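seq as requested:
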Amino acid sequence: MISSIIENRQRRTVDRGSAGQVFHRHYRLLIRSLLLAWGLVAASAQAVEFPGPISLRQDGASLSAQRVRLPGADRDYFVSGSSEGFLNLNKYNPASESYTVLHRFAILGRITAIVPWLGRAGQEAGLVVATLDPDRVVFVDVNGSFPFLSTVAAVPLEEDPGEIAFVGNTTTGPWEMAVSLPGIDQVAFLTEDNGVWALSGTIDSGDRPSSLVGVDLDGDNILELVVANTGPLSGTLGIFRR
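struct tokens:
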């Protein structure tokens, strides 16, 4: 008797669950159909435009990537940073529709962020790289022939870096750089003086600052800083103006 009641209750629960699942499935289909009709959502056939992917084997897990134009080149290449401390320069081959690693450059540390090196004299090509263990910012020269990549300088940090953004005066300089330090809730600032970069100080930003960007908020050609604080105690944007 008891087993029969339990069985009936279980059957009714399953039936109600199945009915609920069917209702929600039809509800989602209805909403999507309405959005498609209103042109708010692209159809799947229109949304997928990139074939692939083509796999390019790297050293360990790929943690970061950035496009780069070699001096004298007529197309972009791209670099990728790995968990094993290699900065790889990759080239696309149009004829064979394949990719080649042109330079496997040992830079040490887990490469978590790569940005273009802005404000270099003569508009020379370069990259700025953030690494973990050792915690530092590395300045990399980009050349038109092998060795394509070479280290110019490195600035040590007191904590694991997150993201990098350039700030400061974009016309007369000096350029400055902000680096998020999520582990200590701060942002580090690096300043250039006659081509030499050094750590100039840190500021408190909020709980676990992560992504950041330089923004000209008032049109004076000076990039202020906007920081996304991702920690549960914050959930804010930190805006730092000159």
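The first helix runs from residue 2 to 38.
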